[in-house]
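Appendix B. Raw example, untouched.
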Amino acid sequence: MKVLRDFLDKQKPHFEKGGKLHKLHSTFDAFETFLFVPNVVAKSGAHIRDAIDMKRTMIIVVLAMLPPLIFGIWNVGYQHFLSQGMAYDFWPMIGFGLVKVLPIIVVSYVVGLGIEFAFAQSRGHEVNEGFLVSGMLIPLVMPPDVPLWMVAVATAFAVVIGKEVFGGTGMNILNPALTARAFLFLPILSKCRATKFDCRKGRCLFRCNSARPFARARC
């Protein structure tokens, strides 16, 4: 870790005011404070002196969500094999569920954090830590067969309309994860809900209300 700390200290002047990369200060600060506890302390009021800051608190919450996430991954695989009338062991169920759930997690974090970084850069403030939790909550409230483009659009809507327009973490009146889930019920997306599945020969045909197929996935 000392090597990484020395590397960051060497690069830090480039991101400070007057440096050639000072416009990316918020991005550099986000990665630095994610890896290491910042050396900034409160100067007023009564505070407990420890190594816990907001990012560490949010990471603990993410760790607390891992048990339900693992159960959800297992349950996706279990429900699949149960519907097929097949008996499988624990790991095949985990493997199938991971294939379905992991892309949703990746899309949620990539889109959400990308927007968070963009807003932080444009406003010149630190990147909010709240999406470390929201990025995990969104996949937990999404159906496993939701198209990834819908996850991306719902996540973008949740971050921008449900959070950033109010000023960011701590000032939003809407829960970003539930805002993303509610967004999927809007009339513009209701036509793209699954109304029919044809799982013959191990293929699953995802159809819109218009009976026009727009996505295929392993069933």
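End of appendix B.
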